[in-house]
Amino acid sequence: MPPRLPLAQSSTSLAPGTICLYEHDGRPLLGIVRSYKNKKYQLLNQRGREVELPDFRLHALGIKLAADKVRQDEQAQFLDQTYERCFTASAEVNLELVWSAVCSEERYYNSSELADLYYQSPTPEQHLTLRLALLGDRIFFKRQEDGFSPRPEATVQELKVSEQSRKDKLRIQQLALANFSARIKDPATALAPELEAI
Q1: Chain-centre distance of CA 113, in angstroms?
Q2: Is 46 exposed, middle or buried (0-12, 13-18, 19+ CB in 10 A)?
Q3: Which of 19, 46, 97, 157 has a CB 3.0–4.6 Å from the CB of 79, allowing a cystine?
């Protein structure tokens, strides 16, 4: 088992205006630091809500808030647009390429290290894009706290087969639903060839 990364140390080093990523109910969200009190940061998130979180739940990104975004609704909209842009781009990240570059070393990497490897000199948005890809990955990396460890090659191959099987089942279900819907509208609609074997 690879050695663990040290946990982020507690501090009050996140200045107001710092944009961070955190997770709520398994979903990543962006937030802007407003203040710090009682060992928690007060943030405005991309949904326009105020939240209080301890520092170990926050991942600072280096993204700067546009200077003209002064109202709370404008800031939340900026966060949401940034998130959506990076989330969309994360689908294009080739995690297999990243994994193949680090799979020989059994250790945990933070997302900054992997972003440096993938993009060479990543922008803050590229860092967020890669982190979102890693958070959504079920094949190449195993998450441990704030780090990501490359899975062994045998495990990756098993997970690829399993993922392909899941996608095939989903495709057949969608095809069956579409075919069923078409047959309700027109009973003469032929059964799709892929469904005949089922």
Answers
A1: 16
A2: buried
A3: 46
> If we measure between CA atoms, which residue out of 68, 22, 30, 23 comes closest to residue 48?
30
160 vs 162: CA distance, rounded Å: 5
**Residue at token pair 């781009």:** 89
Determine the Cα–Cα distance for residues 50 and 40; give it in Å rounded to an integer.
Answer: 12
Please give the DSSP secondary-structure letter assigned to residue 177.
H
Residue 145, by phi and psi: left (phi above 0), alpha (psi -120 to 50) or beta? left
Q: Report pLDDT digits (tens) over 77-117.
A: 999 999 999 999 999 999 999 999 999 988 999 999 999 99
147 by DSSP, 3-state: which?
A: strand
For 37, 44, 96, 141, 183, the CA distances from 147, given in Å and listed in that order, are 27, 25, 17, 9, 50
State how far the alpha carbon of 15 is from the alpha carbons of 32, 43, 125, in Å: 10, 11, 19
Rounded CA-CA distance 115/180 in Å is 45
- Please state the pTM of the whole predicted model: 0.78
Give the integer Cα–Cα distance in Å for 50 and 35.
11
DSSP secondary structure of 64-130: PPPTT--SHHHHHHHHHHHHHHHHHHHTT--HHHHHHHHTTS-S-EEHHHHHHHHHSS--HHHHHHH
Whats the size of the chain, residue-wise?
Answer: 198
Tokens of residue 63, six digits: 């993204």
